[in-house]
Amino acid sequence: MAHSKPPHHSSASPEFDLPSLSSEPESEVFSSGVATSPSFEIIGSSSSGNVNKKMKTEGEFNQEGPGDEVHRSISVQDQLMTGRKVAQRPSIERSESLMSLTDALKKQNIVDEEITQAVAGCDDEKFVTVREKVSKLKKECCPKHRRRSTTPEKKELRRSLKKKCKECKDCVAKHLEAMQISQEDTSEQLDELEKLKVENMKLKSQLHKVFEANMKWQVYDSQRDHYVATLMEQLEDLKEKLQQAKSSTNLDEAAQREIDKILLASKDKVTAIEEEKIQLEDDLRKFKQLCEQKEQRIRQLEAQLRERQGGDKDVVEALKQQILLCTEDFEAERRDRERAQGKIFDLETELQLLRRQLEMYEGEAVQSMNSRRQAALEGHAYCPGRTVPDDYDLEEDMDEVDSLTSAKE
């Protein structure tokens, strides 16, 4: 009975089958189901230590790991030592070692199935190559090679399985890291999209303000043009009145020269006002064109913003700079218009002063003419022999009156 081999030691016994790797076809393993997120979490995150524990058995799997794995390997070694002491025959030792190897291969098969289920639904090239290598190893471990398998082949198989399992774990860990990075990128893109929406609302509000300011300036320009036209009409009326006053009264040369000087000065000022008005109108036209260009640019930027919706920060900064330039140009235009309005107000005040001076000179000229006529009539009354006054004497009398009035002034 000691020399007879136990039935489970036979090479045809199912306990020696390395089958646990080839117990189901490759198509069933890889098509059993797509790896879901829980399977990835089991392998890639919290259960990576358990996978390492399952892979590390006996002396070939002794690496740095938890205490359970060390205890397990020690228990297996103790069992082997007790078996060797009890049964010192080579056949019994071989059967015990084969049993331990079978258990290790079964455990490795469980780990392999878990990793296979985890990477079954992945399309990455690394996972595809790993699946091909695992299927190749399963084919090598099919039943027709069981009887020919020797201990070195089993060791080589264990080493290859260990290596492939490590590659699988590394690939799964990399895949999980890539998924985490993609989730972080998605959250960042959503934050950037919200920021772009806020910036778009701000740009729209600024554009609305620019439109309102432009409408106000258009109304102001129309009112200013109307006011300048009324001023020109009043100036023409004053010129006509001045011509009528010249034709009705014979003013002396000094007063005429003064009036001519005032008129020339007022004409020069009026021409200067007209030239400045033309310049301001040209500037206003340019500013309007610039505003239209800026508005068109803002619309283009909004269109680009709607098309992209996920642009980088440099584009947003460029849009901000362009909006800032538009607002600065608008502020400069407003300041120029305010200066033009101030100049127009100054010119209006000067025109009113000129008008008052003109009215004052006209009143003084009429008053002096009436006084000279009255003096001439009184001088003629004291000359009873004269029926018609002498022109020369009348002029002398008028010169005396002028000298008296000038002395009074």
Topology:
Elements: H1 26-31, H2 37-46, H3 48-55, H4 67-86, H5 90-119, H6 125-140, H7 151-248, H8 253-308, H9 313-381, H10 391-408
Helix pairs in contact: 2-3, 2-7, 4-5, 5-7, 6-7, 7-8, 7-9, 8-9, 9-10
Description:
This protein is mostly helical and 409 residues long. It folds into two domains: 7-149, no CATH class; 190-408. It is built from ten helices and no strands. Helix 2 (37-46) crosses helix 3 (48-55), helix 7 packs antiparallel against helix 8 and helix 7 packs parallel to helix 9 (313-381). The longest helix has 98 residues, at 151-248.
Count of helix runs: 10
The best one-word shape is: rod-shaped
Average pLDDT confidence is 67
- End-to-end separation: 162 Å
Percentage beta strand: under 5%
Unreliable stretches (pLDDT < 50, length at least 5) are 1-73, 384-397
What value does the Rg take, in angstroms? Answer: 56 Å
Q: Major beta sheet, specifics?
A: none
Content-based structural category: mainly alpha
Helix content: over 70%
Number of strands: 0
How many structural domains are formed by the residues? 2
Organism: Lingula anatina (Brachiopod)
Keywords: Coiled coil, Cytoplasm
Domain TSG101 and ALIX binding: 204-235
Protein name: TNFAIP3-interacting protein 2 isoform X2
